[in-house]
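Appendix B: a complete holo record

For completeness, this appendix reproduces one full record from the ligand-bound portion of the collection. The bound molecule is nicotinamide-adenine-dinucleotide. The inputs are the chain sequence and the ligand SMILES; the output is the full three-dimensional arrangement of the complex, encoded as structure tokens. No fields have been trimmed.
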Amino acid sequence: MPEQLEFAGQTALVTGGGGGFGRAISTTLAAGGAHICVVDINADAASATAKAVTDAGWSASIHVCDLTDAEAVQQLIGDVVAAHGRLDIAVNNAGIGGAMVPLGEYPVETWHRVLDINLSSVFYCLRAELVAMSADGKGGSIINTASIMAEVAMPTIGPYVATKHAVNGLTKAAAVEYGPHGIRVNAVAPSFSRVGFTAESITDDSAWDAMAGQHALGRSANPQDIAGAVAWLASDASGFVTGDLIKVDGGFTAV
Ligand SMILES: NC(=O)c1ccc[n+]([C@@H]2O[C@H](COP(=O)([O-])OP(=O)(O)OC[C@H]3O[C@@H](n4cnc5c(N)ncnc54)[C@H](O)[C@@H]3O)[C@@H](O)[C@H]2O)c1
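The structure of the chain with nicotinamide-adenine-dinucleotide bound, as generated:
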């Protein structure tokens, strides 16, 4: 691993750490030397990621938290700083897809659920992380997992598209406000990957084959593609990059 991708002595928090992308991000940052705080509402999933990290000889702790609870998020970040001295890297990655129906039929309850998890939870995390990282003047790097749906749209997932566009805006707002405190805030925009809620929603092999063909590189994303971009954004190698949305989409939006 190049020297600038080393995270020795650093503490990294990964939300949705039990999921497809979260596990790859956790193991990648851990391989660089960071202690990983694996955050998830699903205790079994968080434990499995922590086990993958520690089985490889790296360091992780498990934090079961419902990120839609603003007070619980404040407590979470406070606990992390108390246990590890500071927070260096935060990856706000937890998310859900919601229903797949046209906007005219979209259930209001599901709209609120998608906003709570995909947008409000990112705000709750950001507000606590920004304060924690600026408290000792050392700054840090925050990466939000958006989606190519932060730039384009597709039918039946309107609320998801809206939240990911909003995450892009929130990323820029945080970057502008906290750049002077040495905190960089960026987002990644993955295309489709057959993991987690996406794999559960799209089960048809032929649909995945068709989607692969829509990528310039002829395949959909795998979690390690996303983890590589996140690690770069977390590292000093991207030290002059902030407020950006980095597409990790195999050319999907270029085709
Ligand atoms: N898989 C894809 O095709 C794809 C594409 C673009 C963007 N994304 C984004 O990547 C991120 C990770 O998705 P994934 O594909 O790894 O899905 P995933 O379902 O495998 O992981 C999501 C994780 O978030 C956790 N989570 C959900 N609600 C939570 C809550 N209230 N509090 C705490 N944790 C909660 C889940 O338990 C799960 O472990 C999401 O933000 C998603 O929108 C995914």
